[in-house]
Amino acid sequence: MMKAGNDGPQRQETGTLGKLMVLLDLIAQADGPLRFTEILAATGQPRGTLHRQLGHLVEEGLLEFDGEGRYRVGLRLLDLASRSWARNEFRAIAEPHLSALQQLTGETVHLGVLRGSSVIYLDKVEGRQSVRMYSQIGNASPVYCTGVGKVALSVLPEERLNAVVAELTFERFTPSTHTRDTLLSEIEDIRADGYGYDREEHEVGIRCVAAPLWSDDFSFVGGVSVTGPAYRLTLERLAEWSLPVREAAEAIMTDMRIALGPRRFR
Fold first, then answer.
1. Among 26, 44, 205, 229, which is most exposed with the fewest C-beta within 10 angstroms?
2. How many angstroms separate the CA atoms of 238 and 190, rounded?
3. Could you report the per-residue pLDDT of 98-116, keeping only the tens digit for each?
4. What are the tens digits of pLDDT across the range 238-259?
5. In this structure, are residues 64 and 72 in contact, taking their beta carbons and an 8 Å threshold?
6. How far is the C-alpha of 214 from the C-alpha of 257, rounded, in Å?
7. What's the CATH fold of domain 88-260?
8. Tens digits of per-residue pLDDT, 31-41?
9. Is the predicted pLDDT of residue 49 greater than 60, yes or no?
């Protein structure tokens, strides 16, 4: 089964590079390897053109073609992603604060960045508990029903916020998933409080408390969150942890500005 984020493979791209990126996005975001017919149906490209494009990506090691006629992400792409992640300045500066937050709460801590109408997770510090989160670094999640996504939206200038919201489809994942109106209402609350919650809006049984991160010019917008199962993260516990989450976010932004000076971080 294939899944795509709001700014994933369904986007329209022109030019050879854009079409290749659509293929990489599609295969990388799928739940498992994809057959040619599945990729053909998802992209709508001519059969011959698609064969050539997939062949080029396989030759370069960006995709692999297995013995069962399926395509998956190649080792070269994974290597590039791994090296990029390891050298990410923002992640390196944030890591001590993420670890400290995890030690305080015992729960899983996430660092995420806003990309289009999705949140990409840059880092994760696993909780100490036996029941853990199965989120993965590099995965994309909808911005409107995740804690990191909503706090990121809350710091955007109004024009940019409206542009992002206009792109959203508001797929309903749980009975608590936001509509456009309820999302905008909660964003106002987050702006007033400086933090926000995910109350089982993306996945039943999962809650989080999050605080925003942003650069002065908004070239970087994201958030940090503490996430766990609802039976441990009661509403009272979420409120209790809102202060340390905000303090961690503020410390990350302070260290980032000291480390990078006037440079913009992305």
1. 44
2. 14
3. 999 999 999 999 999 998 8
4. 999 999 999 999 999 999 888 8
5. yes
6. 11
7. Beta-Lactamase (3.30.450)
8. 789 999 999 99
9. yes
> CB–CB of 178/141 below 8 Å?
no
pTM of the shown model: 0.71
> What sign does the CA torsion over 149, 206, 92, 97 have?
positive
The DSSP string of the chain is -----TTSTTS---SHHHHHHHHHHHHHHSSS-EEHHHHHHHH---HHHHHHHHHHHHHTTSEEE-TTSEEEE-HHHHHHHHHHHHT-HHHHHHHHHHHHHHHHH-SEEEEEEEETTEEEEEEEE--SSSS-----TT-EEEGGGSHHHHHHHHTS-HHHHHHHHHH------STT---HHHHHHHHHHHHHHS-EEEESSSSTTEEEEEEEEE-TTSSSEEEEEEEEETTTS-HHHHHHHHHHHHHHHHHHHHHHHHHHTTS---
CB 45 within 8 A of CB 9: no
The helix-helix angle for 235-260 and 89-105 (nearest 10°) equals 150
**Amino acid letter for position 30:** A
What the block records as the tokens of 167 is 């792109």
**Predicted local distance difference test score (pLDDT) of residue 218:** 83
Residue 78 in this model has a pLDDT that exceeds 70: no
Letter for the amino acid at 252? I
Domain 16-81 has CATH 1.10.3720.10: no
**C-alpha–C-alpha distance, residues 159 and 176, integer Å:** 27
How far is it between the farthest Cα atoms of the chain?
58
Looking at residue 15, its amino acid is G
Categorize the per-residue pLDDT at 10 as very low, low, confident or very high, splitting at 50, 70 and 90. very low
